[in-house]
Amino acid sequence: VLILKTLEYVLTGVAGTDAIKPLTVASEVFFALCKSLLKGANGIELDSEEEAKIYEDLLTDAEMMCATIEKLLEFDSRVAPIMLDGGILTVKLAEVLDYVMQVTD
Which one of 10, 44, 71, 78 has the minimum C-beta count within 10 Å? Predict the structure, then answer.
């Protein structure tokens, strides 16, 4: 939690920074967490208590990263156009949706 909150502070609190770098970091981490949640243990043997704790922690981290991206969108007007024009959101979202489609087929 401390690391994520520190990242959030740095991403939203430094004036004159390059908007692409923090956005790229935040989106990469967020979508990696989403993929991890979707993929599950992938053959790793865990007892149900360990697995539940891991999923709970990943979900908490994903929620915090989502909140960080929301704050980037809220406080930096350069972020939304970069997300759309640069394809950061569309490429990552397409990857996650492709994985969802594979799993559900």
Answer: 44
